[in-house]
Amino acid sequence: MLTATGLSLAHGSRVLFRDVSLSLSPGRRVALVGANGQGKTSLLDILVDNTTPDSGSITKPKDMRIGYLAQEIPTEDDGSVLDTVLGGRPDIMHLHHTLAAGPTDTTPEALDTYGDAQTRFEQLNGYAFKAEAHAVIAGLGFATEDAEKPVAELSGGWRMRVALARLLLSAPDLLILDEPTNHLDLDSVGWLEQRLKSWTGSLLFVSHDRDFIDNIATHVVELANETLTEYVGGFAEFVVEREERIERLQAQAASQAKQRAQTEKFVERFRYKATKARQVQSRIKMLEKLEKIEVPERKELQARFQFPEPPRTSRVVAELRDMTAGYDDTPVLRDVSVHVERGQKLALVGPNGAGKTTLLKMLLGDLPPMEGSAEIGQSVTVARFEQHQADELNPDQMVLEVARDGIGAETPRGKSLRTYLASFGFRDDAVERQVGVLSGGERTRLALAKVMAEPAGLLILDEPTNHLDLASCDMLEDALRVYPGTVLLVTHDRYLIRSVADDVVDVRDGTARFHHGVPESVLNPSGPTTRRDTAGNERPAPKKQQPKKQQPKKKAAAPPPPKKKQKPVTDPQKDRELRKQVNRLEKKWEQAETTVADLQAQLADPDVYADTDKVVDLQARHDAAKDEAARLMSEWEQAATRLESP
User: Fold this and answer.
1) Which of 95, 176, 214, 614 could staple 235 via S-S, CB 3.0–4.6 A?
2) Average confidence score pLDDT of the chain
């Protein structure tokens, strides 16, 4: 088990997180979510010892093997795809070469050494290792002949797949993946889900893909507001539990504020009264000890993407008729017909390399057809976002400079650049930050801002959610749903397709098949995906996350009405009895307030919300303690008033 305790990290004056703790044990599959720029990648770098935290510690076994897939494209370019993947287990490969060379001689010692190597090779399943490597490579989309291709000849996306295959085959004790689906197609994402669901070691991954999280994760941890909060279950459970937790904290914060105001009022009222000095000091100490309940801010909900109103276009925006297309007289697609009408939102799906890019080039007139025809409608203006656009931004420029170069001094809608950039999450001094220090998601948002500034009748988005956080994905989804123009969407994000697309074109096996609506069989070509709950049982992944209906909360019991004032006591014996009663009530009241403060401190601990039953019990005890404290305070005030009456 790897245990991180009290981790804190800041970049200059900007605190990313503080006092963060996390445990990763075998069988735990944890999804790490949070807004772009909150420090998710920095936290992963600390866990794999690439970055030193400002404070805190990490405890792990000395022999623990950790595998890490970072977002950066690997630079290793030596060897073939297969050799690189096999290199993930140097111990097995060393034994393989030892056995292939045979015994060094015929002495008993040499034969024993060779026999030990053979036994160890069998224990490590070495004889099936190469076959397993081919299976992993195929599962991630490589053709059989690609196994012998030099890695140096591959594009960045395919090199990422090689790195992922190498990690999976190495079977580390702890596997850490930073956005592993960014360079995968739907088929490969489905295959990876099945692979990771049976992962027996520890798994920690960052992802913006709701379906991927829901199909794999047993726990979700959210990095927000400089702290880490853990939830049990997948993404659906996380959404509901987070909202319920925030509502609980809001209620507790309101209750605490009310209690603080009442206590401060008491202090102010009796501050200069000698007979109340002890009680006043008691309340002042209680206020000092009372930790303020912090309610998480929802900064990510403040930004809102909005596409400009598209210009009027012809009814038919683009059309392919009986088209055959390819390169160097080699067809990639044959006999393809696609009809795109004004206002239609069409998703293109299929394996990488099957021809989605070729089809787009045909629609836009960038590639002449070998056969058939391709036409784009009249008065159709095109805006296009490509998945590598964010990587092409100048890292030395500031956000504002990039926007000014790409858009101008103001947007076509008359908004100032600062106002426009604020709608993409770049507020205040964030526009003065250099592109080179932005997270991957922030660079994607900046690239989208450049594309979305100009009105367009046809919007082409190629993997627009890569590197975006979940909140930004929500904003993009909302903008696309209300956008009245025409959209061609290329993405592996199944949630986004379901939410936005009217129809789907499945590009594979040299052709393109049109599907009305969004069939689940197209989004999950390998069959319906399931995920295991915390008990290990499989259940279908939910199509959409719907928040649970909130049950009406029971009203807190009203404090008992104050007792009627009694006549002044003049008998010395009765006066002594009343003084004892006042002292006794005061002690009980202080004990009750101490209990309330202790329960509030427990409820303010984010970790407690992992256990729903415990939260319900604490809340009930807290409400009862508050009622008891209010009752005792009322009785004490009445007794004290009677004691002081002439």
Assistant:
1) 214
2) 80
